[in-house]
Design brief:
Layout (H helix, E strand, L loop, with lengths): L2 H7 L52 H28 L3 H29 L19 H24 L4 H27 L2 H4 L4
Helix pairs in contact: 2-3, 2-4, 3-5, 4-5
Amino acid sequence: MNPYYQSVFADGNGNEEQPAPIEPQAPPGAGQPPAQIRIQQPSVPPGQPSSAADIYSYPQNLRDALQMITDAITRETEDSADLDYLVANAPAKKMKDQLARMRGEAAQNFQNLRRIYTSLTGQPPPEPGPLARVPQRIRSFCDGLEKGLDVLEQESREYPKILYALQNRTDINRMQDILFTEIRHYIQVNRMYLESRCESRAEPQ
């Protein structure tokens, strides 16, 4: 030991005193049950429209986000039924294969939306009604593509608002994946619409 420290820790008998061991300190809250995470309820009464700023502010945006998730789950169920029609009536194999992949990705979006809803509420989402599984009245392949573009455009407006209400990183990742998938689907369906010359076949209003 360094001579200086020998003199500091030496007792009257010339014996060296060892410094008292430091007892490890338990971190604050150790031994206590983990705190329960609670979702703060927004102050906006049901039925009253939220302000534009509330779409960016948590938890004011949570109520509307949960409703949009519920609506999106129903819509994804309807999309799956409509995609079955488009796959069966696609005029080219390339389009048929692409629509089949989109149907699989729509099913993945459906599952991710359910997981996000459960993560936010601790409960499974409401099940879509039986009518959601019935294909809408589609008059032709082009008509189905046109309706699909309308739905995808609506989702591109609503899904970011759901994303703004998410706090958990996994939920955010899932919602981003859903949003990017829908944007990609919009581009693909729009290309099919143009390649099929659907605009020139549109019936006069």
